[in-house]
Fold:
Amino acid sequence: MSYASTYRQLQPLLVACSLAAAVVAPGAYAQTAAVPVSAPAPASNLGPGVIAKVNNVAITDAQLQRAIQQSGLPDSPNLRAALKNQLVSRELFRQDAEKTHAYDNRPEVKQAMQEAKDATITQLYLRDVIKPAPVTEEQVRAQFNNIVASLGDKEYKSRLIQVGDAATAADVLTKLKAGADFAQLAQQVSLAQNKVRGGDLDWISFKTPAQEGHTQNLPLPIAQALTALPAGGVTLTPVNWNNAYFILKLEQVRPTVVPKYDDVKAVLRQQQEAAALEKATIAVVSNLVKQAKIKQ
Structure:
């Protein structure tokens, strides 16, 4: 079992966007067109923590670090150079715009300033009041043991096509029987998010016969159909579940490879810390809602 597939298989379903993430997460860094910049002054002349000066206005390393974080991209010399150039460009634009004072009292500027102030206050508040419970090594180990105990003696590699009605499902099966490529059909007609990967699913393992709540988040009817297939086989009839129709192809079966604890403990700890943060956030929000008068 590869580390990546282990990560996906072990990762529980969490709330996609908690209130804390929505408020605390930085926005995407605004893209600013770079302009040609003259040769920079020697670093020794800029002062501590200063990476550039634009007409004696300092661009600081702290600003660059925030820009890197907000970009969501891996840190690299090329990224630093590009973002530094953008910061210089933005400062040039700001200085030129301020010469006329035409923008100071525009409603858009006042609104943006208020929103930036509100966002910063909220960030600082959440950091102060949301105190998630610490995650212990014993908790991480217990989660690992529970996951290992839930695995079966085999693991399955499969592909899936999801469609919205029986007629489309029947048409997919007809094309597969005529020799159509499963992955290409998945890319063309599947409604599932993994259509871009040709319907590819990660390796998964669970005890058989499959039982509700013990299939690693795979819907029970799909898990049952999967384990009934031979390697290379495709479901002869669509699986009807949750108002959708699924066609499965079992590509490989192999003995389950249990990951080593040391290989996955960091991922498990991250999951538990995220869950603790979410729990603490919900507690704070719930308490505030009880005290507030909210009309919608």
In short: The longest strand covers residues 244-255. The chain has ten helices and six strands. Strands lie at 50-54, 57-60, 154-163, 204-205, 239-241, 244-255. Confidence is low (pLDDT under 50) at residues 1-39.
